[in-house]
Amino acid sequence: MQEETAQGAIDTFISSFNASDDRYVTSLLAQALTSDVILWGPLGRSEGIAAVERFVLDIRRHPAGTGTMTRCSEVDMPDEWARYQWAFTTPDRGPRLAGTDVVHLRRNLIDQIIVFAGDTQPLP
Predict the structure, then answer these.
(1) Minimal CA–CA distance to 6: which of 79, 86, 87?
(2) What is the distance between the alpha carbons of residues 8 and 36, in angstroms, rounded to a whole number?
(3) Taking CA atoms, which of 29, 102, 105, 120 is between 20 and 30 Å from 10?
């Protein structure tokens, strides 16, 4: 049951990257994250939903075009920490970025996100 709750928050977070319009990003993030969420990302540490929203919007505005973020693994959850693999792919088999995120959950919402991004690779 705990993994299902984590998976729901994670999948809602991932769906913010794939929202049909930028206006929906904030609403999706508010459903998945605590207001004081901490993001440990490629550019360092940031706090709050607004910071995560900027991160998501930057990725959504990739120079190669709007891409698609997908969860590529099951959610592995020992206690209140969870991890999963993801991939971001731009249109027309453009650049692909893959990685693993580790998230901490508090009251069924993500309160910490640690992003481990791999090398950019073309699709096979």
Answers:
(1) 79
(2) 19
(3) 120
**Signed CA dihedral, 74, 77, 82, 83: sign only:** negative
- What CA–CA distance (Å, rounded) separates 13 from 59? 13
CA distance 66 to 88: 10
What burial letters (b/e) apply to 64-76, b meaning 16+ CB within 10 Å? Answer: eeebebebeeebe
> Residue 80's Cα: distance from chain center in Å?
17
Determine which helix (DSSP H) or strand (DSSP E) holds 32, and give its type and residue range. Answer: helix 25-32
Chain centroid to Cα 109, Å, comes to 13
SS3 label, residue 72: coil
Task: Inform me whether the pLDDT recorded for 113 exceeds 60.
Answer: yes
**Residue 97 is encoded by which pair of tokens?**
């970025």
Per residue in 58-79, pLDDT (tens digit) is 988 887 778 899 999 999 998 8
Burial class (CB in 10 A: 0-12, 13-18, 19+), 121: exposed
